[in-house]
Amino acid sequence: MTRLEVPATIAMAQRARAMRGRGEEVLSLALGEPDFPTPAGVIEAAHRAALDGQTKYPPVEGTPALKAAIIRKFARENGLTYEPSEIMVSNGGKQVIFNAFMATLNPGDEVIVPSPYWVSYPLIISLFGGVPVFVDCPEETGFRLGAAALEAAITPRTKWLVLNFPNNPTGATTTRADLEAIAEVLRRHPQVHVLSDEIYEHLVYDGKTHVSIAQVAPDLKPRVLTLNGVSKAYAMTGWRVGYVGGPAWLIRAMGSIQGSSTSGICSISQAASVAALDGPPGVVEVMRETYDRRRRMVVSALRQIPQLTCAMPQGAFYVYPGIAACIGRTSAGGRRLDTDEDFAIALLEEEHVAVVHGSAFGKGPYIRLSYATSDDILRNACGRIARFVAGLT
Ligand SMILES: Cc1ncc(COP(=O)(O)O)c(C=O)c1O
């Protein structure tokens, strides 16, 4: 339990909520949660499912209807073929990760986590006695994972490599060439499995297309878990549905764990997810175009602040500006900013803007802003960040 911290993303959201509870207005760019409502057709499908009596315990690994929709999705969008025994549905992508690491990690097993990373990976790995091994993905290379850096991090104890593209927190995407180079390394190390977290798959910009490692390197597919979910693409964070395709032996083991913990996922959420996955792609496209517009708006506003550096992210709904020039300075409210966490706390206290410090994602001094919120909030928040930075001495 001492290894289990509250993720910084949640801690920052809690701080913001506490301030709101005191009647203070807070502009929150801290949480990775779409501001759109769940599409109406999805909600109607849930309603119908409830009225139709889909209210009993569902199968642990997922309803046949949702597994079939997931198989269609993987075939249609990723060129991946899975059998029903190779598919599992969980309470969000997070439970997929939890099941996978619980099923496979022995104390001391190493998991390579490219850094910056989503906060939950190392927390879950450590919970099961695993050792997260961080591999730096520098901003100069677009926060991408280099094959040489990966190779250098692999040891005989390496059991997993986590890939997360499009990436939380940087918004970095990957390319077929990058994945081919990574696959080449993995071929030399047959003990390494891959958890490919593709939950932001649909949110890519500038004409990019998402690529999956199991598609690029079909020979590695027997050791790849391809993780996805409905939370981000379909604005369904509260429905708690994530899913995964992978080798049947591992899916079976993960199913045993899930059967002894949460059992099958809410039957109504599963019916809703069928409607989401089989629904018209235009629904996702409208949200993607809105994120794209906001992305360009936020980056252009942040680039006008001379003390910040801001790469243009090509995926997800985050920007990850560098704040090195602000470290060591003092805020207008008299707070000394020794770290990016100091920056985030002072920004919240003095300008009421909630962001998450980059060191929580393994790489400072940066801050992560989520632009999955309204244009008004974004414009206002960027103005306050500019004012906060201009006030540093
Ligand atoms: C990279 C990444 N993977 C997985 C998840 C899990 O999402 P969920 O459990 O809602 O499916 C998140 C949520 O923030 C995420 O950012």
Automatic annotation (TrEMBL):
PANTHER family: ASPARTATE AMINOTRANSFERASE. Belongs to the class-I pyridoxal-phosphate-dependent aminotransferase family. It catalyses: L-aspartate + 2-oxoglutarate = oxaloacetate + L-glutamate. Residues 25-385 form the Aminotransferase class I/classII large domain. Its cofactor is pyridoxal 5'-phosphate. It comes from the Bacteria. This is Aminotransferase. GO terms for molecular function: transaminase activity. InterPro entries: Aminotransferase_I/II_large (IPR004839), AspAT/PAT-like (IPR050596), NHTrfase_class1_PyrdxlP-BS (IPR004838), PyrdxlP-dep_Trfase (IPR015424), PyrdxlP-dep_Trfase_major (IPR015421), PyrdxlP-dep_Trfase_small (IPR015422). Keywords: Aminotransferase, Pyridoxal phosphate, Transferase. It comes from Novacetimonas pomaceti.
